[in-house]
Amino acid sequence: MLAIADPEPDSAPILSLRQPVTMNATPIRLDPQPSHAELARLCDKYPVSMESERTMEYGTAGFRYDAAVLPPVMVRVGILATLRALETASGYHVGVMVTASHNDESYNGVKIADPDGGMMNAQGERLAVYLANERNTDALVQYFVAQQAKYTTEKRIHSGNAATEPVVVHVGRDTRSHSPFLTCLVVKAARACGALVLDHGVVTTPMLHHAVLHANHVKFLPKLIPHRPHVDGYQRLLIDSYRALLATTDNQAPLQRSLLVDCACGVGYIGLEALLQTLDQQSSGFGSSTTIVPTNGPDSGGPLNESCGSEYVQKMIIPPTWYDADLFTSATTSEGRAIKPASVDKSYCAALDGDADRIVFFSEGGHGSDFFLLDGDKIACLLCDFVGNELGILQKAVPSISFLSLGVVQTAYANGASTAYLEQKLGKANVAIAKTGVKHVHAAAHQFDIGVYFEANGHGTIVFGDRYYDALNEAAAFLSTAVQDTVATRALRRLETLPRLVNQAVGDALSDLLLVDAILTLRRWTLAEWNAMYQDLPSRQDKIRVQDRSIIQTNDNETRCLAPASVQPRLDELVQQHPSGRCFIRPSGTEDVVRIYAEAATREAADTLCQAAARVVHDECQGVGEPPSIQSRM
Ligand code: G16
């Protein structure tokens, strides 16, 4: 494990960095300490390397590198976040999350949340790359001072007087050993730039995005969603909505089962525990039928994301290592709720990633069946099916409401069988393929009134457009005066609850966990019944190292390799050898690897195709080390 000594001894006032790892219900307020001299000191103390020829890139999900090279980036992200907040004439808040999500402990990273709670836009990314690579401290400070003066003048003109809103930056971090120190650098730089910092401490990535969205609620939060700021608001909103959705059941007999959750030995464990405490506090007499059992927490003894977590389970298509020694010991809360049943049933399981923005479900051989995986594709199909059914009921009862488009966005990693299922259910025009990365799929989902998006790796959510809320309003008005229609009223209640339970800012493992569990409970479905919606084509993924992955270029949706030119013809030739074969390669934006995806009609063919494609990459793209084989996957 990489440890970075804290060379900022005066960081003690940043209280949350000194606290035990529990979740803050509300953030700690750190007042601005504007000082261009302090900013220059930080830039000088953490300089961008003069020797390195590497350009720091804002990749699929922010800057993500070996933690040891990140201190200069973090100082510059403090400047970036302040400028992003200053740039918005209306004084919107922005967010900074320090995490490397699914990567191993040696990595860390940082992503910026824009005022709408979503990922930072492309213009912000360009600024991020400039700042992170500027070697000259004077140039950096002067750039900041000039931009600050420009935005402050614009703001004053906009607001009509000299008093302007404070510039506010929210920060959060995951449980990595170096995250406190790296966060401290963001905080110090932002305060030196004159920002007020709201320090949320240890949080999941989606909690930080929620905090930013709700901080800017007047402009960005849809009317139907109550304003619930901070982490405690997040928990209350999710639990209230989960209960509201379950309360629409027409079957009173409780369905008792347990859901075992592998939290990747990361922050998701702390987030889920906090959520379950809220459920306990607010649920007297509530017939919640699923006992949710968080496991693989930061103290379980397992290394972060190693042989566990959603990335491992989904990429390897095998169950995780269960690190908790007391997994089979029964335990109850002080209110008597079973939190660890005496015998753990592994027929209903889920796995989160290291910052809890992804989730996949799986069954580990309950009732004599083998392991099977329900990834982001299966979640997307379940959600589309549920929303489509309820919408169909409502539209039949209230024909005057406008037609709403229900569409789904996937990436090249989507299993071909899932795409075929969705095209058949929703129509081809309502199934889109976008480039990998939640920033791309999220943006593409906005073309629909109800846009479901999920990457196969379990990163996804649903976004709802204005026409959705208008239609529900109209339906509510109609149903309040019409002859009682319980089925339509129930559909309306379900559709009204969805935008509250679903994280509108970003894919969210905890929100998705509650949503999927509620739908399965309402339908009284087992994972096997859910899995039977369609049968996945066998697929295989691999990753290999090459000398320089930036030589690989793909088309827009990453299904074809454009450079090196010799790669795609060889892949095409391989694909033709396998019935239902499909294969693509792309450079990762979060790891120093090239990813390979293959699927075919049989398991053997998918494995063979993947292995052969990995060899093509190795041959044509200057692979490092021995040519890869399926058996020697990293
Ligand atoms: C990030 C992105 C995801 C993306 C994943 C892998 O996830 O948010 O959208 O699918 O990286 O990206 P790549 O294949 O480019 O390495 P996370 O959970 O690691 O933040």
Describe it for me?
There is one protein chain. With 634 residues, this protein is of the alpha/beta class. Helix content is 40%, strand content 16%. Among the domains are: 9-221, Alpha-D-Glucose-1,6-Bisphosphate, Chain A, domain 3; 376-510, Alpha-D-Glucose-1,6-Bisphosphate, Chain A, domain 3 (3-Layer(aba) Sandwich), CATH 3.40.120; 539-620, Alpha-D-phosphohexomutase, C-terminal domain (TATA-Binding Protein, 2-Layer Sandwich), CATH 3.30.310. The protein is built from 19 helices and 22 strands. The longest helix has 23 residues, at 137-159. The structure holds 1,6-di-O-phosphono-alpha-D-glucopyranose. 1,6-di-O-phosphono-alpha-D-glucopyranose (G16) binds at residues 60-61, 101-102, 353, 357-358, 436-438, 455, 457, 459, 588-591, 595.
Task: Write a short abstract of this structure.
The protein has 634 residues and is α/β, with parallel strands linked by helices. The protein is built from 19 helices and 22 strands.
- Shape annotation: globular
CATH class of the domain at 9-221: Alpha Beta
Annotated CATH homologous superfamily of the domain at 9-221 = Alpha-D-Glucose-1,6-Bisphosphate, subunit A, domain 3
**Small ligands present:** 1,6-di-O-phosphono-alpha-D-glucopyranose
**Biggest sheet details:** 6 strands, mixed
Spatial order of the strands forming the largest sheet: 1-6-5-3-4-2
Average pLDDT reading? 90
Radius of gyration: 24 Å
Q: Low-confidence parts, pLDDT < 50 over ≥5 residues?
A: 1-5
How many strand units?
22
Helix content: 25-40%
